[in-house]
Amino acid sequence: MMDVDHDTLVALSKSWGLFYLIAFSAAVVIYALWPSNRKRFTHAKMSILDNDDKPLE
Amino acid sequence: MVSQLTISERQYALATLLLLGLGGLAMAAMGRGDPIAVHGYIVLIFAIGLSFVVMAGYYAPEPDKTRLSRYYDDPTKVGIVLSIAWAVVGMFVGVWVAALLAWPDLTFDQAWSSFGRLRPVHTSGVIFGFGGNALIATSFHVLQRTTRARMPGQFAPWFVLLGYNLFCVVAASGYLIGVTQSKEYAEPEWYADIWLVVVWVSYFLIYLRTLARRKEPHIYVANWYYMAFILVVAVLHIVNNLAVPIAWNAAKSYSLFSGVQDAMTQWWYGHNAVAFFLTAGFLGMMYYYLPKRAGRPIFSYRLSIISFWGITFLYMWAGSHHLHYTALPQWVQTLGMTFSIVLLVPSWASAGNALATLNGAWHKVRDDATLRFMMVAAVFYGLSTFEGSFMAIRPVNALSHYTDWTVGHVHAGALGWVAMITFGSFYALVPWMWKRETMYSPKLIEVHFWLALAGTIVYVFAMWNSGIIQGLMWRTYNESGSLTYSFIDSLVAMHPYYIARAFGGLLFLLGALVAAYNVWMTIRQSRMDAIDAGEDADIPLFARDAVQAGE
Question: What angle do CA B212, B218, B222 make, to 5 degrees?
Fold first, then answer.
């Protein structure tokens, strides 16, 4: 019983485990580099430097 | 502080404290001779003490509506003060346990002051007391500023901050009377763990509710790190602390896991505590306060996103590198080692991103010790993540494991990275919170900086030397194939390094005391100014110079 569990785990981590992490990292890189996201990211990184210390209404 | 709460929030507070007090009373009454009774009394005193505070301000007039056009910063202010108080306590006990290794008589023959009981007071005091309070305080500040929204209520932030500190007090006092689960960084027993789950879920809800009210469309990257910290720490804490108490009125419990599964669960927890408590949360701090202080946007926002997901998904698998050459299956060890090495990529991406942000602002780093704290933190973050990946390699681990090298590595991260980024952020945040131009004394920030840096370097070099010598002595064989050195030989060789380490820690503690004084004086100045301003408003001009009766 234990052997089956162990082998299944190894098989899973060597196949699915490998591919889902590669797919996931590809998705993250695509999201980060997607051209139309540039405006949003630039706005986000500049907006924290705004010194207006009040919530927006 | 209480006057800022609405009447219904004051009632919530009293009702919660009543329930808490009853809980404490039940623990004290049913625990009888068990250590859980001591904790019952502590909870009861905590609840009664806070009720007095709430009741003293209960009949104050309701706060006016204009408060809603400001951020809610009272919990952040109290969190900063608590964090620094814990820093002083935790680091003092750290110097004490360091001294115990060089001069074992410093227990003064008391059970509570033995090394095994004091050490978790040090680790929990600095990680959870100092670090945790700093994370809660700064996260409330960053969350509101980056979403441009006020936190939804005023009760929940207090519940989280004070509830969390109750957990810390129960934890630390428990160690001294021998209450422990014997799991590193997860020593508190089941009832403290359940309490922390309640507090932690409230913390996450504050985050979600404030984000739902956000006025900025995009969620700034610092919040992602803070949220990963809150969410993953909840998962880790719940799983690793699954245990069955021997009775409802006893402190002792037994873990649901045993053998190598227990070890794996513990180090999955332990390493992710480093990842999500001591890294993700503090990266959140860095991604906000460093650009803010430098007056420059983060070098690459895209890189910060990629490193965020890298850190989040890779760290999950790295824990097994704590169990090289054990009963853990070889492939699980290899898995942990591999992920630890790949982790260097997102770690250095963050460290490099921080340093590249400073390009063009190096003159500020030179002149401003606050920004220099953050810069050095980023450097130590880079150094200790490199060292961590290196030590996770199995053959390197064969030399380093169980030696002082590990202790040196942890402190390069804890002193050089976590404490430095926290102090830097506090020195930026304290004047903002208490409406001052600068800290009370910029000179003292400079003094603190050099004490902290010197202390860290002395500490880390002492432990590197000590650890490598120790590791080599343990694996040196003579011609007949037996060990050349006895364990006691290696202990004698460690002695000078233990003295050096205690000295390095002492320098760091002195720095923390300087910070405490500087923050205290900044708050005092701010209060004096408020009083002066109040006098200007209330007293007629002609009366100001009038001699008071009796003078």
Answer: 90
